[in-house]
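Need tokens for this chain, all 406 residues.
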Amino acid sequence: MTLPLPFRGGVGVGPDPTGAPHPSVPSPEGEGKIALYVHWPFCVSKCPYCDFNSHVRSSIDQDEWRDALLADLAYEASLLPGRTLTSIFFGGGTPSLMEPATAAAIIGAASEHWPATDDIEITLEANPNSVEADRFEDLAAAGVNRLSLGLQSFDDASLAFLGRAHSADEGQRALDIAQKHFPRVSFDLIYALPGETEAGWSATLDRALAKGTSHLSLYQLTIEPGTRFSSMVAKHEFEPLEGDEAAELFELTADRTAAAGIPAYEVSNHARSGQESRHNLTYWRYGDYAGVGPGAHGRRLGKRVVRHKKPENFLSGLKRNGHGMVEEEALQTSEAADEALVMGLRLSEGIDPAALAARFGQQVLDDAAVDRLIGTGHLERSGDRLRTTASGRLLLDRVLAEIAAG
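Here are the structure tokens for all 406 residues:
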């Protein structure tokens, strides 16, 4: 049997679910717990590869946005009483443009709405620009205990191609400051750039692994529709790396990080044991999380929730309705089961098929297809868990399409 779809190693975290309402999606794993995602939508500039909800504004009223995010948070908390807060993740956009006092207010309010676990993880995404790095000490004092730094490259020419606003030297300075002030630091790199070779990426991995962080996010460059890179490729201004070459870099990444003791625990994320992003594990294990802020998504009480993307529309909706939601839709049980399968097989730990079937009250897998793919070496069983092999991860989309029941 062949699996002809191309390599998709560096793609996002799964489909954006839609579907007809259904009231009986069961409670998530870790019932009684909740994770919080806070979206700060503002950036200094828009990177040409970025399709996230980010907006450039000449000025930002920090007081207005602190009050707006707190109000949106209070609405979500009113729907989820009695939960225990396990993590807060400030994403964007560029959350390091947020005043530390705003972060502190949100962290404080969230902990008042829900009792927090003793080891709560509070992550903030940051860019390495000097003005933002100078805020790191105050952000740590505000309660942030994990920083995710968008280095993206150690090379000035690559940073310029990626449209980044910082230099390689600024990136190193920001990493030094982050490691001084935060107990846990991760950083991002983008690979499979046009013309990138195994030797070049291997040298970059040497530098990354020598930095001493406990977590790395290593993303393959993908050309997303609607981005400036998409227009440039359409005009033949540059050619993306071939799929086979990108797959070789993906395999090299997995081998090198595993050998260094910081293996992939998800398709694009690597960590030392115990240093995985707890917030993202909640997402991939299909737990509940509340999302607040412009463009934020959430998943709670069997529903998919989306906020207004445009900041001005978010503020208008909040004023009218007391929240920033633009969409709230119940998930079909079959749809939620498929999503949980997709998310779970992105993880190196894989899934427990029997537990998923019990949770959703239906067959999640096509057993015959699973057996075929075990036979071809794309899946493997380990105790009660099913997971992809190295070759299966190269063809994850195709594997998922074949094994999903129904």
